Amino acid sequence: MHRRSRWLVAGVLALTLGVAGCTGGDDGAATSGAGGLPGPAGGGGGAYPRNETLYTSGTQWGPPNSWNPIIPGYAMGTVGLAYETLFLFDPEKTEITPWLAEKGEWADKTYTLTLREGITWGDGKPLTADDVKYTAELGKIKAVPYSNLWTWLSAVDVVDPRTVKFTFSDPRIQEWENWLYENAIVPKHIWESRSEADITTTANDKPVGTGPYEYLTHDQDRMVWKKKADWWATKALNLDVKPNYIVDIVNSSNEVALGLLLQGNMDLSNNFLPGIANLVKGNFNIKTYYPDPPYMLSANTAMLIPNTTKAPMNDVAFRRALASSIDTKKIVEGVYGNIVRAANPTGLLPVWDQFVDQSVVSQNGFAFDTAKAKKALADAGYKDTNRDGFVEGKDGKAVKLSLIVPAGWTDWMEAARVISAGAQAAGINVVPEFPDAGALDDARTAGTFDLLINNWAGLSNTPWHYFNYVFQLPIQAQQFSANFARYESKPAWELVQKLARTPQDAPEFKATMAELERIHLTELPMIPLWYNGLWSQYNTTHWTNWPSSAADTPKDLPTTWNNLWEMGSIKMLTQLKPAAG
Amino acid sequence: MSRYFGRKLGIYALTFVVAVTLNWIIPRFMPGDPVLRMLTRTSVSNPEAIAPMRTYYESVFGLDVPLWRQYLNYWVELFQGNLGVSVWLFPAPVADVIVRAVPYTLALLLPSILLSWWAGNKVGALAARRKWLDNTALPVSYALTATPYMWLGILLAWGLGIVAGVFPVAGGYSFELRPQWSWTFVGSLAQHWFLPFLSLFMVAFGGWAIGMRNLIIYELEADYASYLAALGAPRRLIRRYAFRNALLPQLTGLALQLGVLVSGALVTEIVFAYPGLGHLILQAIQNQDFFLLQGIFLFIVIGVLAANFLIDIVYVLVDPRTRTGMQGAT
Fold it and tell me: Where does the secretion signal sit in this chain (chain A) (predicted)?
């Protein structure tokens, strides 16, 4: 007995020592790896004081690898925190407000833009009209995403160091405003030495911008920004960003984000966290924009996209029957637990409610009604001749449509199942399938799918953006950003182009919108389903005064998603307050 | 001796060539097109821009030459340490991406492989001789070795991380720290490292313990053990001989298990959001980033081959029979 216990003790000891010894041994290996990283190892201090640091996540899904504002895929905050845009878009007033620019004025086919005084780059050089001209002219490189600017812009001239004149061959007001607030200005004195190829391939790992933050460090799983000593908006607009450090954590999964948020180690999570409603109601210091359903603001419209080049999706009667077979309420309540809203039949986001023509909607809209869907199918000549419960095509062949959503997008996968169940109940054989996100991208781009869900019709300065997404022509062999349904409607496309040239306050704008809504609802090239949320949940333990629907609280978009900083999210940072203590 | 190692090296070189070739071929037969991925990402809206951008990205990724040329280039660049440009993390070079992740993966793999092997063998050997230990350690080991890595990882993360709050559940080191030489930082590294290590260690440990226990029992029943016992040798001596003999199959097992352990580490890293290769592989597959995938697989292939070679050497050192055999052969 005595001997046995001695053995046991020895065994346990050996195990513990082994583990301990290994802990020691491993540290050497791990630190030498980390020591090799280009972090400011000598930069003293080390830890970020908790009350000066904002921890965020929900934007980056891979290691930060690019700080190049020209090419999408840059690290969180590259545009917004480091580089800035000429204007911001204010989603509350639905207008653009001057940011780097002081003002901009149209005169016939020219647009004269005046820059604010006293803005400097991170290296101390002043921001000048040359930088704006240089940035716009980068669009002449075909690989720059906004290269289509130059199909309707003809010249950019520097009038004086603070004034730039843009001359247009085709003044598309709406599209231009979109450009003004979506694209960051880059410093000519740093970028002009780069070749064309460099501009679109450089990682730009020392970003020098005009914004309130500068690059501090990054690692595989984080991106750290540090507040700059002086930012132009502090003087010009009396705005001051409160966190001295922003640590953005790379997402590995939403579960990890939820864990960090619950522990109070994360302040703002822009991840989709199912079941967040329970946590908001509970005593976890977790808040969302609305205290009740839908909890989140709406960010974009999830659309069911039929491939209108294939039968029977090329038949408007079939598409309408499909639309009324979908139980959107079940998706909103069952799949999302009410954290999203059902979409208006037009698909226009709630901020555009003023432009929704209710009479058009009530005449041509669709709603969930299985019986009506069945009748519509029968009326259009779709019959179930082989009695398998599903209608056949007009040619008599069986119809089996696959609805694809990316594997791993659990909410969309569930939604696809609801859609499929609804369609099958009405007699349309829709089968959900879940390929990889990449394979789905290929199918969507090349047009080899039957049905899919897409939500690229997001918040923007103009509803033109939405209709451009639905109706854009001409149809290419590969469709990269719009009209995935490949629907050809010349009248609609002409109206979209007209919309691009009409100022929002002109009466024709509303009339054109109503006409587009009518075409969209009667021909239904894409079927709007629900508004995806601007997923955002905050832990109020360390930072307070988050945006919310309550009175006397900020109303800025509470997000770190790229492309939304320039929609006013940057102002959220100026409103935050460190929690007392 | 030199002939033995020469032959071994030859086999390894051949394996390397075949593996690298497969590594090059397989992603190219995967459905998907990296250039299309880039075009989708930049969401080109200008129809005229599509053709020039396609040519441009094809040249960036080296896809603008015939296949045989691409294959040759691949080998040439491999020896220059150039693994191409990542599609998913464009424009980062694949080598850079991997180099940043590798220390974390190695720091998990090496200690967990070596320690679990060592501890598993010790405990297994003990269990073979102690009925009460056998009755407790054996079922536990069976349960452990049958546990999927990620499941154990999730249990540990939930129990010790979320509920008890003792260990962090994400990251390579505290999100409050910057890399530096200080005790806080090293402590933080160790703290974040411990749970992923533990889940790898425990699963592998179970397997080794069972193996060793069965081998020892087998060895103790062997003729030489009975003979020694009949000669009146002390039990301690017999056990030592049995242990040594039982170690050899375990050593072979280690070589065979390396691949499994590597894949286990990858899954574990995903569970703990540990910034090693695991998360990279997953994303590389989902984003059809075949340059990154190639790079990571290449690293794994080299790692496993090198480890096997090391085990071959160790085998010669620990098993006198191999040495005798080699002398006989030369």
Answer: 1-25
